[in-house]
Amino acid sequence: MKQWHWIVLIALTALTVVGQFIEHHYWWEAVPGFFAVFGFVGCLLIIFIAKSLGGLMVSQKPDYYDKFKKHEEAKTDAH
């Protein structure tokens, strides 16, 4: 990265940290690390909900394709 990128990154980080301690509109803004924990818990919920929905709607039983294979074999044996 160029030097000015680092300067902008450090300035934005400093402004963000200072902004955490200035003028809180809601109670959760005054709790240190609230948004980090909120984001982490939200990501965990998304992962577990997606995994459970995938298990219910997308995945099939292990013998799912065996049924089709047996059906195809029965067709070819009949001719």
Structure in words:
The protein has 79 residues and is mainly α. The chain has one domain (3-78). The protein contains three helices and no strands. The chain is elongated and about 75 Å long.
Count of discrete alpha- or pi-helical segments spanning 4 or more residues: 3
Q: Any idea what the shape is?
A: elongated
What gyration radius follows from the Cα positions, in whole Å? 27 Å
Distance between the termini: 69 Å
Total number of domains: 1
Major sheet size, sense and barrel closure: none
Number of strands: 0
Would you tell me the overall average pLDDT? 85
* Low-pLDDT sequence parts: none
Helix and strand pattern: HHH
Strand content: under 5%
Q: Decide which structural class fits the backbone.
A: mainly alpha
Please give the structural blueprint:
Layout (H helix, E strand, L loop, with lengths): L2 H17 L14 H25 L5 H15 L1
Quick structural summary:
This protein is mostly helical and 79 residues long.
Keywords:
72% helix; elongated; 79 residues
